[in-house]
Design a protein that fits this description.
By secondary structure, the chain is of the alpha+beta class. The protein is built from 4 helices and 9 strands.
């Protein structure tokens, strides 16, 4: 009799536990948050302005029968060049040596000269000295180039332009990118029968900084060599995720 009563109690306990488990399952499931519905877009914005700083790579190349001869000639021309550049208003802090090299140039064989072969090899030496200049008043750029050439500069490379402080252009491009992102999100939401909610995440990328040469006109800056500064452009991209409702 006792054994039957014990079995009944155990059975009742098991049944109760199963019932509680069954009753608790929907409640537990109701606590699981539904995934947030969202839409992600990339907005683009750009702004351009007139450059106010120029960079030039300029220098002197000389040659001689010996390395020392070529170096001496280069030193004399480069000294004159630097004096002219500074006199044109370029500060010492805006003049930086970018390359100094010496190399032998084989001219080939010259007939009739004593040698073990049909002719003697003639070797000359070439010295190159180049500096990077930063011109902070581009209205003087043409005159600076003219002064440099008159002082003996015979190599000019990589004239480029930029805006010294692009933060204002970046701010304008950023505003346009955010507006573009919002417009794209609203268009996509409308096409899918929903509406745009609050911003969930946003990230930014600034790039594509460059010059718009096609918009430039050839102008003589300061009455010197004609220069084409173009327009400086900044591109900003923003990726924005919105909730949808």
């Amino acid at each position: 009799m006792e054994s039957k009563r014990l079995a009944f109690v155990i059975t009742a306990l098991v049944a109760g536990a199963v019932l509680l488990s069954a009753c608790g399952t929907p409640a537990a499931q109701s606590n699981v948050a539904a995934p947030t519905r969202s839409i992600t877009v990339v907005g683009q914005g750009k702004a351009s302005g007139a450059p106010d700083v120029a960079h030039i790579n300029i220098g002197v190349e000389t040659s001689g029968a010996s390395a020392q001869e070529a170096v001496n000639a280069n030193r004399a021309q480069m000294t004159t060049l630097l004096e002219k550049i500074k006199a044109a208003g370029i500060a010492a802090k805006d003049i930086q040596t970018s390359n100094f090299s010496i190399y032998a140039n084989q001219q080939g064989k010259v007939e009739g000269m004593p040698s073990s072969g049909a002719g003697a090899e003639v070797i000359t030496y070439r010295v190159t000295n180049q500096v990077n200049l930063t011109v902070r008043d581009i209205t003087k750029l043409g005159d600076v180039l003219d002064q440099a050439v008159s002082a003996g500069a015979n190599s000019v490379y990589g004239v480029s332009f930029e805006v010294d402080d692009p933060s204002k252009l970046e701010a304008t491009a950023r505003e346009k990118a955010v507006a573009d992102a919002k417009a794209r999100a609203e268009t996509l939401a409308k096409l899918n029968g929903v509406s745009v909610g609050e911003v969930l995440t946003v990230s930014e990328a600034v790039g594509g900084v460059g010059l718009l040469y096609e918009r430039a006109s050839v102008v003589g800056l300061g009455g010197g060599t004609p220069i084409q500064p173009g327009e400086f452009e900044v591109n900003v991209s923003v990726q924005v995720t919105y909730s949808i409702k």
